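User: Just a sanity check before I run the rest of the batch. Below are the structure tokens for the first item. I only need the designed sequence back.
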């Protein structure tokens, strides 16, 4: 299947590193004009210096209302539309204590869930005006089962539920706007958690794969980004509210009873 996203305008939040960077490059290679955000001005300047055609870095913090407004104004002024939104930004923020303060919980929930809601709400009117759009939320298998710190799990579960609920609603409101989510399992990304573990503690990585992942290997970055391209296209017209798991059979879901 050959998919072209020629003349489509895309935005990827958190696109300077890791999975976000790979998504930016894959969308661009598929023909899209891609904006991406990062709070790291050094990374922004580094990518700007490469002068890659149809890739536009934006230094902005999507966890804030003012940052989202800056992004919206820039894209709206330049093109007046947005076709593809990939809500990718997210992190545990190293907050792992389940009994931490409400402020810590709020910080994790905002970065991994609420800011995605705000970005979507900001750009959705442009999609409705254009009568076409694709919204892809990068969640995690942590949104389907216990797989990480409790605050992060709860935030990703909220994003997963949001995708299913609002994706279904959009199917009623406008059949040409499709919201979906991708829930990756253990995927090695440049500078990411598992790349570091493989370098620093390969025995732990092997033990994790043996005990948790039926396929006994890490996911490849292209196994995620290729799905992003598909979900960004006309081919995804029947995927409203779908949650696509890319996890080598790892996730068992909250209501799963294992006999193994």
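Assistant: Here's the designed sequence for the first item:
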């Amino acid at each position: 299947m050959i998919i072209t996203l020629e003349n489509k305008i895309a935005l990827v939040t958190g696109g300077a590193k890791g999975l976000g960077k790979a998504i930016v490059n894959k969308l661009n290679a598929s023909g899209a004009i891609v904006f991406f955000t990062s709070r790291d001005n050094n990374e922004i300047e580094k990518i700007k210096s490469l002068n890659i055609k149809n890739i536009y870095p934006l230094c902005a913090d999507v966890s804030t209302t003012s940052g989202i407004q800056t992004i919206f104004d820039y894209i709206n002024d330049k093109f007046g539309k947005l076709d593809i939104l990939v809500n990718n930004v997210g992190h545990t923020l190293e907050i792992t204590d389940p009994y931490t303060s409400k402020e810590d919980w709020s910080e994790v929930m905002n970065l991994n869930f609420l800011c995605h809601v705000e970005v979507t709400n900001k750009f959705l009117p442009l999609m409705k005006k254009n009568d076409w759009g694709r919204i892809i939320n990068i969640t995690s298998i942590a949104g389907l089962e216990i797989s990480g710190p409790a605050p992060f799990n709860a935030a990703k579960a909220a994003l997963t539920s949001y995708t299913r609920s609002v994706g279904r609603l959009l199917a009623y409101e406008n059949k040409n706007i499709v919201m979906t989510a991708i829930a990756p399992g253990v995927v090695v990304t440049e500078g990411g958690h598992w790349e570091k573990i493989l370098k620093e503690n390969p025995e732990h990585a092997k033990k994790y794969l043996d005990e948790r992942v039926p396929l006994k290997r890490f996911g490849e970055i292209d196994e995620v980004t290729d799905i992003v391209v598909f979900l960004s296209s006309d081919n995804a017209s029947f995927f409203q509210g779908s949650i696509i798991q890319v996890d080598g059979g790892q996730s068992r879901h909250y209501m799963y009873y294992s006999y193994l």
